[in-house]
From TrEMBL, chain A:
Keywords: Membrane, Transmembrane, Transmembrane helix
Entry protein name: Uncharacterized protein
TM region(s), chain numbering: 18-39, 59-78, 99-122, 142-158
Highest rank taxon of the organism: Eukaryota
Cellular component GO terms held in the UniProt record: membrane
Keyword NADP belongs to the record: no
Recorded family membership: Belongs to the UPF0220 family.
Location in the cell: Membrane
Species whose genome carries this gene: Cercophora scortea
Keyword Calcium on entry: no
Membrane topology reported for the UniProt record: Multi-pass membrane protein
From TrEMBL, chain B:
Keyword Ubl conjugation found: no
One Gene Ontology biological process: late endosome to vacuole transport via multivesicular body sorting pathway
Source species: Cercophora scortea
Protein name: Vacuolar protein sorting 55
Lineage: Eukaryota, Fungi, Dikarya, Ascomycota, Pezizomycotina
Localization terms from the record: Membrane
Length: 171, 129
């Protein structure tokens, strides 16, 4: 890796181990699950008897989460090695370019989902001035989208920390 | 070796029984049978890892698709494990089940999952010999 000569501080040794990589992937799954169930919690709470207000969770509240999950799926489906293909001979007929376009779409969907979460929060909860127990539904929407973003960051980092030699030893 | 294995099996089955007892009690005491979902979650949790490890060919270093399939399995397992925690908390937050039922089902689920995991590790050690 060329970037190791660029920075003064190197990645610590334990970060390259297969153990750290696998636990990163597990943690990403856990974070995504947390995001989904935070949103599900707001939906269940909205339909339960505790919700005294008229505000209910509808499909609109789920839409930002769907977009950010879609973005996460796209981002993590792209082969990372194709991205850093500097030589034209390796990347063939513009594979790196295609990868960049697809990755851009993925990041756009992820950021759009987060922005959509903020939009729903502002338009549906903050501006009409929903009372506080009902406000939880809006806050949970924000938290869920942030957790999806965090989960995709963790998954991205832990997939990039793979190192061929550590890999050979473990498998 | 055989005696230790027998003791481990007895201890594990005891822990599994205690876990099931806690979960079933958390359902039956409050007449709300939603916490039984926790058992299904924790029983299903190792399944994605198991399936994906059979699908992937770990000797294949050239194509990284094998590692991707393994990662998918790990991701799903992490999802299911957190689901086992999150489901009772959601149900308790909306007052569908009582808070003591939530605590009991989470602890019972952890005992069941721990039994499954340690059982798997135990058998893997056996295979190495």
């Amino acid at each position: 890796m060329a970037e190791e000569h660029l920075w003064k501080f190197r990645k610590p040794e334990w970060l390259n181990s297969v153990w750290a990589r696998n636990s990163g992937v597990y943690a990403a799954g856990g974070l995504f699950s947390l995001a989904f169930y935070v949103l599900l919690d707001s939906a269940v709470w909205s339909k339960s008897a505790l919700n005294a207000s008229d505000v209910h969770v509808t499909f609109v509240d789920w839409l930002p989460f769907i977009f950010s999950s879609l973005g996460m799926l796209i981002i993590n489906s792209v082969e990372k090695q194709r991205l850093s293909a500097d030589s034209f001979s390796y990347s063939g007929s513009g594979v790196a370019w295609k990868a960049r376009v697809v990755l851009f779409l993925g990041f756009a969907a992820l950021a759009g989902g987060m922005a959509g979460g903020v939009t729903v929060f502002v338009l549906k909860f903050a501006v009409p001035g929903v009372e506080w127990p009902g406000m939880t539904m809006g806050v949970e929407n924000l938290v869920a989208n942030a957790l999806v973003g965090l989960s995709s960051v963790v998954l991205w980092v832990s997939q990039n920390m793979e190192d061929e030699y550590a890999y050979n030893l473990a498998l | 070796m055989a005696a230790a294995g027998l003791k481990t099996i007895i201890a594990l089955s005891f822990v599994l029984a205690v876990g099931f007892l806690l979960v079933i009690l958390s359902c039956a005491l409050w007449k709300a049978y939603y916490p039984l979902l926790v058992v299904a979650t924790y029983v299903l949790a190792p399944v994605p890892n198991w399936i994906c490890s059979h699908l992937a060919n770990p000797d294949d270093f050239v194509e990284s698709s094998g590692a991707a399939v393994l990662d998918l399995g790990r991701f799903c397992t992490g999802f299911l494990v957190v689901m086992g925690f999150a489901l009772p908390i959601i149900l308790a937050h909306s007052h569908i089940i009582a808070v003591p039922a939530m605590v009991m089902s989470v602890i019972g689920g952890l005992l069941i999952y721990g039994t499954i995991i340690s059982f798997g590790m135990f058998f893997q050690e056996e295979q190495e010999f």
